[in-house]
Amino acid sequence: MRYQGLTDFLTTGGKALAKGPVAMIFVEDLVEVESTIQHHQNAGFAQLLVFAPDALELPDAVEAKIHRIPYGLAREGALEHAVNKIIDAAPGTWLYYCYNAEYLFHPFCETRSIGELLAFHTEERRGGVLTYVVDLYADDLGQFPNAVALDHAYLDKSGYYALGRLDADGNPLDRQLDFFGGLRWRFEEHIPTARRKIDRISIFQAKKGLKLRTDRTFNDEEYNTYACPWHNNITVAIASFRTAKALKTNSGSTFEIPTFKWHNSTQFKWTSQQLLDFGLMEPGQWF
Fold first, then answer.
1. C-beta of residue 146 within 8 angstroms of C-beta of residue 257
2. Which pLDDT value is given to residue 61?
3. Overall average pLDDT of the 235-255 stretch
4. Helix (H) and strand (E) counts for the chain?
5. What is the structure's pLDDT at 286?
6. Which of 42, 108, 118, 168 has the fewest CB atoms below 10 angstroms from its CB?
7. Domain boundaries 1-100, CATH class
């Protein structure tokens, strides 16, 4: 279904938010939009909201299964604005957000749906799911100049690390870490400092007063934690071409990067087990 804009959706299509989980896909460009939609449909989301420019063309069969909302991301804070509007309209519903050319993986996703994961996570009284954004990149930038190639995707198998997260007064925040690695670490000279983290709370349960902040954390600090006080919880991963795509389409960096491959590159198998083996997500107590 297609809407006139976000206000129109909230006015006439709000019933789509009644039962989750609901995925929000924000379309920055026209790269791999259809595959992103298909991937998240297969993951088991009840509804998909696709925030996209008018230039995007999709097959009628795809359009029929999504809620398409005309939306631009050029202005500062556009994503946070849309996410917070959806939060306000959907208290109690599990929500997820990503960009095009990003693909969610959770432990055992080949045999268990995102709904099953969130049912367990809810039982553990958790409101958010820590997500690692794992950079993907094409192996041959001559053949794939925008660095996007699903069948030739590589990732870094090591080089990830975490630092303690501090509050405004310089004190450590309980059970919060800033995570780094991948292309944002290897090519950090081309990445603004504020955008070098690879962690995101991409899956969360909406509630009254909850707000997504510009640094991709929430105003409820418990949502930003990697685990509850008594044991580790489920974490998930988003396999993302977004950083590679940006580095190769930005005139300030594209000519300085002939390849993204290095000695720690390995081909991405598109399986949850590979990400589990590399420690890029974990099942917590969910076996």
1. no
2. 95
3. 96
4. 8, 13
5. 87
6. 168
7. alpha beta
Which two three-digit tokens encode residue 195? 């955008």
**Torsion angle in degrees (nearest 10) through CA of 52, 53, 59, 62:** 10
Question: What token pair was written down for 96?
Answer: 């997820």
The domains of the chain are located at: 1-100, 103-287
Structure tokens at 26: 């924000």
Question: Where do the DSSP E strands lie in the chain?
Answer: 22-26, 47-52, 67-70, 94-99, 102-105, 128-135, 137-138, 153-156, 161-166, 172-180, 199-205, 236-240, 265-267
Model pLDDT for residues 57-115, shown as the tens digit of each residue:
999 999 999 999 999 999 999 999 999 999 999 999 999 999 999 999 999 999 999 99
Sequence-distant (≥ 6) Cβ neighbours of residue 252 within 8 angstroms: 190
From the list 39, 54, 46, 45, the residue with the least C-alpha distance to 3 is 54
